[in-house]
Amino acid sequence: MRGTISWTAWGGALAALALLTGCSDEEPSLSESSPVQWKACDTLFGAENMTSLRDALGTDGLRFTNTALSANDLRDRLTEEVVEWTPTAKYYSLQEYAPCSFAGSTRFSTTVEWAKDALTTVRSSSSPWRHSGGDVYVDDLSGAGSLQTDVIFPCRVSGAVSAQQERIPLEIRVEVGAGKVSSALHERLVVGLARSLSDELKCANKPNIPDDLKLDH
């Protein structure tokens, strides 16, 4: 009889624990499983824009495809690169970063880097880049399969040499599978990322990034 009571009590304790903790095989939410990526996306694009994006893409099977990189770490790495850069350097390394990328029913990807093209090249008549107002130059590669926009703008970082602003401007790319996201939301995401990076890097030239990038889609 004493053994029966013991097993019954143990079974009751397990049942109570299951009720308190929920089902053990329940999948954690995206914000719980990838908190660094989740916060970085909200910081760089704005929480409202990210909510609209996730609603458009659907949450089923949605997962981050980029390694964890906080907005602060992205800022620090970009700053370190540009402060160490000199116009006379024969070789230098400028990394491409993916601060917010995920996949599900379609793919959403972003990249940020110091541009390989100087602004003189960007402004040339043979360049694919076009002036889109303010300090922004755009190369819109959107087509039937995806919405893809590259943006370049000058960002002078404190501590960098004076030639940096013109020689290595900041370049971003935002791409999302077509058919899921409206062109208006896509443009808000591009503008949001550009403005957030301008703030994070404390661009001393205060680049003018317009709401309307005059994208061709």
UniProtKB/TrEMBL annotation:
Q: Which domain of life is it from?
A: Bacteria
Specify the protein name: Lipoprotein
